[in-house]
Design goal:
Aspartate Aminotransferase, domain 1; Aspartate Aminotransferase, domain 2; about 10% strand; alpha/beta; 12 strands; binds pyridoxal-5'-phosphate
Length: about 450
């Protein structure tokens, strides 16, 4: 007989402490040495390139992603801003992007003086839908801002095809998806330019920081002229090199201390990523072999269907269970599962706002006239858009991705914890018929 559900008074299946297995970032003595060494040597200046942590980090990123140029920045957001500048986005242009996303993806578009044009997402990958991108193109469109999720890249072949047919540039936001691959290529190395983040919570973690990258030497030089005043004397094209002693925007260089931490993190990055991937693949495959659960149906360019951290459930094989009920039962077992509906979460640091940028008061307006602020700051170059008419059926559907739940990713070898998760899922599957009644009573 199947063990009693924790929800019905049984023992929870997951008892190990998640903190150790999920610890991130993992900093240690190596980082301490790298940072204290720089302070002792009074070697914190970062502006000139040359030997040191900034150059080391740029080389490591360029090598890991297989790109020609990498330039360290103060943040991933700043790297995205340089990428847009590099590909030639100007005030008055339009840039197509997705709405269910962290605002930092969109802010550099507005910072460039361009209007964000929100396109819908694919219901399985939750990345930009190439068909809707094409619908949103106007004579003012200059670029497409693509986001990749961890383990879950956007459909880059189709997006690059749309871009080529319409003469658009593609910027890849690789800020949260370091190590995601697309048909064997690193996400971030496919479009015209990309950014990775080295902010504290990311898999390349260094407190704050970002790296801009590109294979296009012209894009690189132009991008460098936005925020890297002192680096311009190295540029190969005399046109851009002559900007040396001036520049066209903000001061975007990375702090040396962050770069030093980033270098140590990059040394361990691949081995830690492999641990994460081994864990997600093992956990996903084991759960998918339990009746009622399966792998998401991702396109072939995905390296593994489990690396998005999502598992699909079949309500008809689980007593007609809803996502909410399934989550409730698994959470009672101690499993840290959640809903993967990205747009269902809240915008960070803005209480109560849904995670859909096109619904934000900056775009929708409110009684304080916040919607007018956008046009005030963008100025007269930009053609006004009435965002109240923007309808994104997939983005706005709170149930998408249908019948999916999110499982955590573990940063350290976690075989024992994974076994406990498998037991939790098996228990819930075996008792699924009882769940509707049990949950009704539990309320
Ligand atoms: C999708 C996405 N893009 C860009 C960024 C910006 O990165 P950073 O915090 O390094 O500026 C973030 C930050 O969380 C993000 O989630």
């Amino acid at each position: 007989m199947a063990a009693q559900l924790a929800l019905l008074g049984g023992e929870p299946a997951v008892t190990l402490d998640h903190e150790y297995y999920s610890q991130w970032p993992i900093y240690g003595e190596e980082e301490v040495q790298a940072v204290t060494g720089l302070i002792r040597d009074h070697a914190l200046a970062s502006q000139f390139g040359g030997p040191g942590p900034i150059t080391d980090l740029e080389r490591m990123v360029a090598k890991t992603w297989g790109v020609k140029h990498a330039l360290a920045h103060s943040s991933g957001t700043a790297s995205l801003r340089s990428a847009l500048f590099g590909v030639g986005v100007l005030p008055g242009d339009e840039v197509i992007c997705q709405s269910a996303i962290h605002p930092f993806n969109c802010l550099p578009i507005v910072g460039s003086g361009a209007a964000p044009i929100f396109a819908d997402i694919d219901p399985v990958t939750l990345t930009l839908d190439p068909v809707d991108i094409e619908r949103k193109i106007t004579p003012r469109t200059k670029a497409i801002m693509v986001v990749h999720w961890p383990g879950c890249p956007a459909d880059m072949d189709a997006i690059m095809d749309v871009a080529a047919r319409h003469g658009l540039r593609v910027v890849e936001d690789n800020c949260v998806s370091q190590g995601t691959t697309h048909g064997g290529r690193m996400a971030g190395s496919i479009g015209d330019a990309a950014a990775v983040s080295f902010q504290h919570g990311k898999s390349t973690s260094a407190g704050e920081g970002g790296v801009f990258m590109t294979n296009d030497t012209e894009v690189y030089q132009r991008a460098a002229c936005l925020g890297h005043y002192e680096r311009l004397r190295e540029l190969p094209n005399p046109k851009w090199r002559a900007v040396s002693g001036f520049s066209f925007g903000e001061k975007y260089r990375m702090a040396t201390l962050s770069a030093a931490i980033g270098v140590v993190q990059m040394r361990h990055w691949k081995e830690r990523l492999d641990v994460r991937h081994a864990n997600t693949d093992k956990l996903g495959a084991a759960i998918a072999s339990i009746k009622g659960f399966s792998a998401p149906d991702f396109p072939d360019y995905f390296p593994s269907p489990y690396r998005s951290g999502r598992i699909v459930f079949d309500p008809s094989a689980l007593g007609g269970i809803s996502r909410e009920r399934l989550l409730h039962a698994l959470q009672a077992e101690g499993a840290q599962v959640s809903s993967p509906a990205q747009k269902n979460t809240l915008t960070p640091h803005a209480n109560g706002l849904t995670h859909m940028l096109h619904k934000h008061p900056v775009f929708q307006g409110n009684e304080h006239g916040t919607g007018d602020v956008l046009w005030e700051v963008l100025g007269p170059h930009v053609t006004r858009i009435d965002y109240r008419n923007v309808v994104l059926p997939v983005t706005e559907d709170p149930e998408i991705p249908y019948y999916s739940i999110r499982v955590p990713s573990f940063t350290r070898p976690a075989d024992e914890l994974i076994e406990q998760y498998i037991t939790a899922f098996a228990k819930v599957a075996a008792n699924a018929e009882k769940l509707s009644g049990a949950l009704a009573e539990a309320r």
